[in-house]
Design brief:
single chain; Rossmann fold; elongated; binds cytidine-5'-monophosphate
């Protein structure tokens, strides 16, 4: 991690939340890791911690005022955007997130945000009610959709004395994410990627089908992260979902497992990386009725003969390009590691991402996941509860180490 942080230009934006004091520790650590840090503070932030502290820690004057220039002869917010390779905003309060989402630029921090074209990492922290408020949630989603990296708050002790979601993530977690974002642009440079996502629908008749509650969010997050990491081509083969196509991704819409296989077949042998995040139905009705199936007589039992669907991941693994890396997902509700390892071996995968939808935050359709990543060598990386976007980045960072440069 140090080699990624060293000599990088990091702009830290502090806003007025009590967690602002933790910014001192972060800035200090970044400087120790060899980064060149500049600090911009909102007026409210200066009420929590004085500019002198940050000036001493980063060794440079602190920027606070849109009109009182620190750099003589320069316009501070433009100078700052030219300086920074990443803009880390913390604590990203409900107010700052709202300004970012709606383009308000009424102080130096928000003006710098709207003027900058480097990656932005918003580290959210606030009281639980403020975080859970629909306005904050909508703003966070909007910002993530626009490519802002968001580190969501953790659950724990809050300044109010209560326990709940809203606590600023720990320093090392923030630094890990900064390193990921800074290193990210090159992890998959020039690589081609195939991602499967979403549920499949297996028709019984013209109006009914078998499916599952997958929303496709995990696969879409992986496709989005792959683009951010410099992939040359990202193909996203997806079952029915409501999600918007991530910028630059080539989307192939399918309905059933058989359709998904048809879409994957011409791509599987061409790509450098396959990530199968789709929740493919394991069974499909043996026959699809051309007309709507009628109810049988009251009380009479009906049976529905099912056939197994093709295993798309197993096909992609078997027919991979030489040197390609193949990653599967496993949803397990018991003996997670043992069952997932069995799947990894059976399908000859390089990695498998295991999650248990019964765990808090790991349910189908949510925005978060808690996963363990296993590799063919028996290594395991246990990840804490995190957003699907963050999990996608962590996974691709890990996997990119195995791809030939
Ligand atoms: O064997 P199981 O269905 O649990 O394996 C899960 C993994 O296999 C996931 O990565 C899923 O996307 C993939 N899969 C597939 N085609 C199927 C079933 C599962 O690609 N028919």
């Amino acid at each position: 991690m140090k080699h990624i942080i060293q000599k990088r230009h990091i702009l830290v934006g502090l806003s007025g939340g009590i967690a602002c004091y933790k910014g001192c520790d972060l800035v200090s650590r970044l400087v120790q890791l060899g980064a060149e840090v500049r600090v911009v503070m909102t007026e409210n932030a200066t009420r929590f911690v004085g500019t002198v502290s940050f000036q001493a820690l980063c060794g440079s004057p602190v920027y606070t005022d849109t009109f009182g220039s620190v750099d003589p002869g320069g316009i501070d917010h433009i100078r700052l955007t030219e300086f920074s390779e990443i803009f880390v905003i913390l604590p990203a309060t409900a107010n700052v997130l709202a300004k970012m989402a709606h383009g308000l630029a009424d102080d130096l921090l928000s003006t710098t945000y709207i003027a900058c074209n480097c990656p932005v990492l918003a580290v959210a922290a606030m009281e639980t009610k403020m975080y859970n408020h629909p306005a904050t949630q909508v703003n966070l989603k909007l910002l993530e959709k626009r490519g802002v990296h968001v580190l969501h708050p953790e659950t724990g002790y809050l300044a109010s004395g209560k326990k709940g979601v809203g606590r600023l993530p720990g320093r090392e977690r923030i630094i890990e994410r900064i390193a990921l974002v800074l290193g990210a642009t090159s992890y998959l440079a020039g690589k081609t990627v195939l991602v499967t996502a979403g549920p499949t629908q297996e028709a019984l008749d013209p109006v009914r089908y078998l499916t599952n509650p997958s929303t496709g969010k995990m696969g879409f997050a992986i496709a989005r992260a792959a683009m951010r990491m410099g992939a040359q081509d990202v193909h996203l083969v997806t079952g029915p979902t409501e999600l918007d196509t991530p910028f630059g991704v080539k989307r192939h819409d399918v309905v059933s497992a058989a359709d998904m296989l048809k879409a994957v077949k011409p791509l599987a042998g061409k790509v450098d990386l396959v990530v199968a995040a789709a929740a493919v139905s394991d069974f499909a009705p043996e026959k699809v009725s051309k007309t709507k199936l009628k109810k049988s007589a009251q009380g009479e039992k009906t049976t529905l003969p099912l056939a197994q669907t093709p295993d798309i991941l197993a096909f992609a693994s078997k027919n991979r390009k030489k040197g390609a890396v193949v990653v599967g997902f496993a949803v397990e509700t018991d003996k997670e590691i043992q069952n997932a390892m069995g799947k990894l071996k059976k399908k000859a995968l390089d990695y498998i991402v295991v999650n248990n939808p019964r765990n808090e935050g790991a349910a189908f359709g949510g925005d978060t996941n808690r996963a363990v990543i296993l590799d063919a060598g028996g290594n395991r990386v246990e990840l804490p509860l995190m957003s699907k976007d963050e999990l996608a980045e962590r996974l691709l960072e890990l996997v990119s180490g195995k791809l030939k440069k």
